[in-house]
Design brief:
The complex is a heterodimer of chains A (about 280) and B (about 325). Chain A has about 280 residues and is mostly helical. In chain A, about 75% of the residues lie in helices and about 0% in strands. The N and C termini of chain B lie far apart (about 50 Å). Classes of the chains: A mainly alpha (about 280), B alpha+beta (about 325).
């Protein structure tokens, strides 16, 4: 009976999750390129062997990880600061709270195009300001050192409001009488931040972390529009690499292999995260 | 041992509130409150919700500032001090225990903030834990405790503050009725009779009478009367106090001469002749007592009498002159 009631959900999961996965697993064992006339030809583990030795795959994996860790870290720090600010009561708070959500509400493609113009060398407003100050204009999107920071900047700008909103919800769940009791015991406000706010915000930080990491590790649209993975693949992510293999190189078998490789890496990092969290929880203060 | 814990906070003395005023958004929350509580005395602030009793507590704690008046503790003006510097301990209605810390850490945190040496902290916490029979719960989180246990932890934390005044904000309101009755004498034994004044906020007159040395009745931000439970019961200063103290509520009969006659339900008695003729409308039998509603020419009356007495449907009720209370119909004041 319970199985019957769960059946619709299970079927849906199977249809949108397991079936494509199995299809990809099968595809990763085929060669399906222009040379095979775009027809699948079984090649055994050839794609997987290629993946293990593919420097571009591993470089993209490292770049994806670097992007995710730096941008999610920044978003958490900035988001926490903004949430704390919005949690105080001051005039015009409601307006600022609504306005601060705007970047998050913009479609990623639109805001990525916007940032491409803002960061344009030499015609974008940022370089305009730099030039009027007598500074040289910077090739934000054309430099292998700067381009990934530009991606981090755009992503942070867009998703910090989401993190801030989540943490603000968490802050509002903390009863004010805890702070009052704390003050009566002689605690100072900054001590309250460390002793009460941060520990009680932990579940919300974890949720934000999991949501954001999952999104950032699979980032595609922002990079595709802002830099296209360039210059010299310096901002290319795994999702973009898989896309390029299928849609540009027309190598569907290898694209599926890259996808699955990415899936395995994500699964491993998710497991690590869960383990770390359990250890964190186990250490009760 | 109880007293050694509650004391040791330096000189203790009485708490005095002088002409306290508080307005919030143009609304007068408190108007000219004068009260004094002696060391070791327990004063209950009694009144309906919204009467300002919790505001008084928050003003004493420093969580709010008065718009007028002074607060003196042991002769020192503390009106402008921050909450942390007042040496005041408060038991919140919600208990306000830190949910992420064990019982023991809940107790240790305050002492750590105040710079008590580590070894002393542990000693003190152990002592209070054993005094309140909380030892076996020391490593539990507040969410793993029952309501009564949480209240004891909140009390333990207040004791460790070694305060110059104890404040309790409806500490029983989250507990069931039976537990409340059990805890009342315990609470009294722990807090009252020490060296610090105790201010206890409640809306339950039974609780106030059971725990307090004196009761201050408040309504609409004004002090109605302050006195011992016996005083308030025997000679209520006005209609508010008369109807707030004593259950079931006092009967009020219109005399037709601009005054009301108050007779408590327990002071009515069946008489052979004289008194007023009444008809029983409803009965509740409680074992030791029975509570009746009767119709009289002056309106319906509440009557409480011994449960052993058989009551006819028609009878006459009278009362002794000494039990009459008279109030002015316009001002509500005793006359």
């Amino acid at each position: 009976m319970s199985l019957l009631l769960m059946a619709p959900a299970l079927l849906l999961l199977l249809a949108v999750f397991l079936w494509p996965m199995l299809d990809y697993a099968w595809l990763s064992l085929q060669a399906q390129t222009v040379f095979t006339g775009l027809k699948p030809v079984p090649v055994g583990l050839a794609n997987w062997e290629r993946l293990l030795g593919d420097g571009r795959f591993w470089q993209d994996a490292a770049q994806t990880l670097r992007f995710a860790v730096v941008s999610v870290g920044l978003e958490l720090l900035l988001g926490l600061a903004i949430a704390l600010l919005l949690h105080q009561s001051w005039r015009g708070r409601g307006l600022v709270r609504s306005l601060s959500l705007l970047p998050w509400a913009l479609p990623t493609t639109v805001m990525a195009l916007g940032w491409r113009w803002i960061l344009n060398d030499p015609n974008g407003p940022i370089n305009g300001v730099m030039q009027s100050l007598g500074l040289p204009s910077l090739p934000f999107l054309a430099s292998t050192q700067l381009a990934w920071l530009a991606v981090v900047l755009a992503d942070t700008w867009k998703t910090t409001p989401f993190v801030a909103l989540l943490l603000l919800a968490g802050l509002q769940m903390i009863p004010t009488d805890l702070y009052e009791a704390f003050a009566l015991e002689g605690g100072r406000p900054w001590q309250g931040l460390r002793r009460i706010t941060l520990p009680l915000l932990r579940p919300y930080v974890l949720i934000a972390l999991i949501f954001r990491l999952a999104q950032a590790l699979g980032v595609f649209d922002l990079v595709a529009v802002l830099t296209g993975g360039g210059p010299a693949s310096s901002t290319e992510t795994l999702a973009l690499y898989a896309y390029l293999n299928a849609m540009r190189f027309l190598d569907f078998g290898y694209s599926a292999t890259v996808m699955l490789g990415m899936f395995v890496l994500l699964l491993a990092s998710a497991l690590l995260l869960v383990l770390a969290q359990q250890r964190w929880r186990g250490a009760r203060p | 041992m109880i007293n050694t814990i509650a004391s040791g906070a330096g000189p203790t003395g009485d708490l005095r509130l002088e002409a306290l005023n508080r307005r919030i958004a143009g609304r007068q929350i408190l108007a000219g409150i004068d009260l004094a509580v002696a060391p070791g005395e327990c004063l209950a602030l009694l009144g309906p919700s919204g009467c300002g009793k919790t505001t008084i507590l928050r003003l004493i704690a420093g969580l709010e500032r008065p718009d007028g008046g002074r607060i003196l503790l042991a002769g020192r003006d503390i009106t402008a001090l921050s909450p942390g510097r007042r040496q005041v301990a408060m038991v919140f209605q919600s208990y306000a225990l830190y949910p992420h810390l064990s019982v023991e850490r809940n107790l240790l945190l305050g002492m750590e903030l105040r710079g008590v040496p580590r070894q002393r902290r542990q000693q003190e916490a152990d002592r209070v834990l054993s005094m309140l029979q909380l030892e076996s719960f020391r490593s539990r989180r507040p969410s793993e405790l029952s309501g009564g246990q949480r209240q004891r932890v909140a009390l333990a934390r207040a004791l460790l503050r070694r305060p110059q005044v104890f404040l309790l904000d409806e500490p029983m309101s989250n507990l069931d009725a039976q537990l409340r009755e059990e805890l009342r004498p315990q609470l009294r034994a722990i807090l009252c009779g020490g060296e610090a004044p105790v201010v206890y906020v409640t809306h339950d007159q039974k609780e106030a009478m059971g725990i307090a040395d004196r009761i201050a009745v408040l309504q609409n931000g004004r002090l109605q009367q302050c006195g011992t439970p016996q005083e308030l019961y025997a000679s209520p200063a006005n209609l508010v106090v008369a109807s707030f103290i004593g259950r079931p509520q006092i009967n009020l009969l219109d005399r037709g001469d601009g005054s009301l006659l108050g007779i408590r339900p327990e002071h009515l008695q069946a008489v052979e002749e004289g008194g007023v003729a009444v008809r029983v409308l409803s009965r509740e039998w409680h074992g030791a007592s029975q509570q009746l509603t009767v119709a009289s020419p002056h309106g319906d009356l509440r009557w409480i009498t011994s449960g052993a007495e058989p009551i006819n449907d028609q009878l006459r009720l009278g009362w002794q002159l000494q039990h009459e209370h008279r109030f002015d119909l316009d001002t509500g004041l005793r006359c």
